[in-house]
Amino acid sequence: MPQPTSTPSIDVLYVGDDASAATAEGVARAADRLSVRRVASVDDALVAIETDRPVDCAVIDTRFSAGSLAALAALRDADATLPVLLHLGPEHDVAVGDALDAGATDCVRHVPGAGYDLLAHRLRDAVANRRTERRLRTRRSQYRQLFDDAPVMFAVFRSVDDEPVIEDCNDRFLDCLGYDRDALIDRSVWDLYADESMDRAVDGFDSGRQGTFGQQERTLVTADGERVETIFRASPRVDRYGDVIGTVGLYLDITERKRRERTLERLHDATRNLLCAESRAAVAEVVTDAVGDVLGYPRNLVRLVDDGMLRPIAITDAAERMLGERPVYAVGEGTAGRAFAERETLIYDDVRTVDDDYDRRGARASMFVPIGDHGVLSVGDTEVGTFDRSDRRLAEIFAANAATALTLLDRTRNLERQNDRLEEFASVVSHDLRTPLAVVDGSLELACTRYDDENLDRAARSLGRAFDLIEDLLTLAQRDDVPDRRPVDLPGVAEACWRTADTADATLVVDGEPTVRADEPRLRRLLENLFRNSVEHGSTAPRSDTRGDSVEHGSTDNRTESGDSVEHGSTAPRSDTRGDSVEHSSTDNRTESGDSAEYGSTNDLTVTLGPLPDGFYVEDDGPGLPDDDVFEAGYTTDSDGTGLGLAIVERIAEEHGWSVDAIDADGGGARFEFRG
Length: 676
What we know:
Layout: E1 10-15, H1 21-30, E2 34-39, H2 42-50, E3 57-61, H3 68-78, E4 84-88, H4 96-101, E5 106-109, H5 117-149, E6 153-160, E7 163-169, H6 171-177, H7 181-184, H8 201-210, E8 215-221, E9 227-238, E10 244-253, H9 255-276, H10 280-295, E11 299-306, E12 309-315, H11 317-323, E13 329-330, H12 334-342, E14 346-348, E15 366-371, E16 375-380, H13 389-450, H14 454-477, E17 486-489, H15 490-500, E18 507-510, E19 515-518, H16 520-538, E20 606-612, E21 615-620, H17 645-655, E22 659-664, E23 670-675
Parallel strand pairs: 1-2, 1-3, 3-4, 4-5, 18-20
Antiparallel strand pairs: 6-7, 6-10, 8-9, 9-10, 11-12, 11-16, 12-13, 14-15, 15-16, 17-19, 20-21, 21-23, 22-23
């Protein structure tokens, strides 16, 4: 437990001749911790004050000291803070008023026989007051030092006609705004606010005086007209009686932070523009514009590689005016060529020091930043050594983003070429391959009506598989537009698909009444393929070997009448002639008695469709999923399947922005979950 601090002793200097010795001794005895030294004259007193030994208080005995007021003045000159008491004789040889006016701390009249307790008490009070004032001065000095040295802007306001008038401010406030102290003191701070900050200034001053002000942004205008953006906080300012007389304000300079935020925002805008650019030249133009806007260096250009040469693709007007037509560099040649070859940013404080015979005219500071494998960004300025670390970092960010955009452009072009080849392939399959197959199919149907031959039935099934494969390949190869997504009644579409798909004796169960936003025709194709996949792989007996078994996983055609072959996708019987072939969306379920079911027994197979919190699912209680990727094009466990049905399901889901996961159902079987 800390011990209480002992009261320090009081060193008193008593000024009086030998006749006052008894008085001095009496004062010393009157109170504990009083140490009294007597000196005979004011000169001796001044010497005592100047020595190392401290003096807490002085007493001038007017009865035994000549020129008491003069002595008082001399002591005051030596130490203005030293308490000085006048010990007056009974005759009041010095007027009390004159003594106090001359700077006396207190006056005590000597009363014979009354002792010295009163003088000792007054001495203690005077010293205590002095020590308190000294602590307060020290504290105020510390606060003032903090106020002046604070790294934020401080200002003290008094309320004058409900306006915050500057009464004091620290050096940081003056330095940030570029004013002399005399130019701001007694001036309303609102004179320094930008127009947009005045909207909330009046209410802000009111809430600051009430103590309810939080923090707000304020923009101040400097003496040079520049803008200083700040975060402002205010608290009430009170006088010694507790009355609110104004506010104390703190301004945190966030100009640089705001600049960085704006730079980052413009960088994001430039990046978005880069990713939207449709050509290499457009990418280069975005980079040159952004370097001028964000970095503040309007003299810049972009060279891109073309046939092994770095050719200027985009150049700003300012760069063209200063530099004229720019040369083509070979890789590794010149400043830009070396930066590209070394894949490293090169910065020259003064490019004139480079001896390579290239005319750069007024350019001084120069920076060359490689744009990945695509080219070089060149930035110049008319001043020497202007590029700092931030300039380099931002320039390299622009270059990296441009490299990404150019790489994406190259990939996009490659994909477009691949898609063009796919469309060519689709055209060949659709017309040049399917047409002769249709002729073969018609002839085969005629042969089947005339001859009961097992080989003809096998050929018919294989031909049907070829039609199904063509249809699925066309579906995968085509580039559809964005689906026209509208609210669709999922149970109604599912039941319609169940009726058109060859689902044998399986059962469909719809759980709830979910609604999805989808393109209905594509949703139908997705569900039909899923239902056929469940029925095909959920059967419990092998397929028969008759022609009636020719329904394929992934097909929308259900052929069942041997003499009435229908082109996959048609809704009408196919005649012997080529012109009668109709494509897409068969709803024909043929059941000629001579045909056997495509699948084995499906009496116990149940397919369930139900809702998810963010989508829907389709599951069956069949044998479950294999370990392989069932969505891989060409993958099938059925010797007669195309292996494209589930690939089409995945394709349609992706077109809708859905994810699709194939997992094992809780009770066994396969479960497909669609989310998005």
